Amino acid sequence: MPFDYEANIAAVENALNGYNTTTSNPDLSSGLTPRISNVYVSDPEVAAIRWDQLPAIFIRTQAASEEAAGLGATGPLTSHVRKFKEVTYELVCMFTRDGAHTSLPAHETQVYRFAENAEGVFQREFTLSGTALWCQPERTDFGAFQLGDGLRVRGVVVSLKAKYLFQ
Question: Strand, coil or helix: what is 12?
């Protein structure tokens, strides 16, 4: 069977949603005002995003590579062939200020917490509920995004690398 991209990105989405409760440890929305209300498996560059849907996380597959060690056909008839695949996901975390009264330093603190919380989920959920051999945050970039209606928002892009063994 070929590598199942859809099922594996769903495991990333499930991990984020599972840790987005006040009783989870870590809490994805800890220290954020307002709490994260949406986690999408979508590319934010082509999705229609409204300011009232933020804060939100968009998950997209950025790259994938496969080791040549397992050359050969995959599937149930060739059970001896196993392959490794490394997939890099991008978690695009978009955050908007809670009204004009929020000071810039307080806003930056929340953006940093957004990054810490997203990274913390995958430091805790490092096998994506057993679908991956491991995963870990590899890089975090901070910046600004412009939505289609001209609204600029702060955000964080967390690159998450996961390694899979598949047949």
Answer: helix
Q: Each residue's pLDDT tens digit in the chain (167 positions)?
A: 788 999 999 999 999 999 999 999 999 999 888 899 899 999 888 888 777 888 899 999 999 998 866 666 655 555 667 789 999 999 999 887 655 555 567 778 888 999 999 999 999 999 998 999 999 999 999 988 776 666 678 889 999 999 998 87
CA–CA separation, 32 and 28 (whole Å): 9
> Cα 122–24–95 angle (5° rounding)?
65
Q: In angstroms, what is the C-alpha Rg of the chain?
A: 18
Beta bridge partners of 161: 88, 136
Give the end-to-end CA distance of the chain in Å, rounded to a whole number. 6
Q: H or E segment at 108?
A: helix 104-124
What is the reported pTM? 0.86
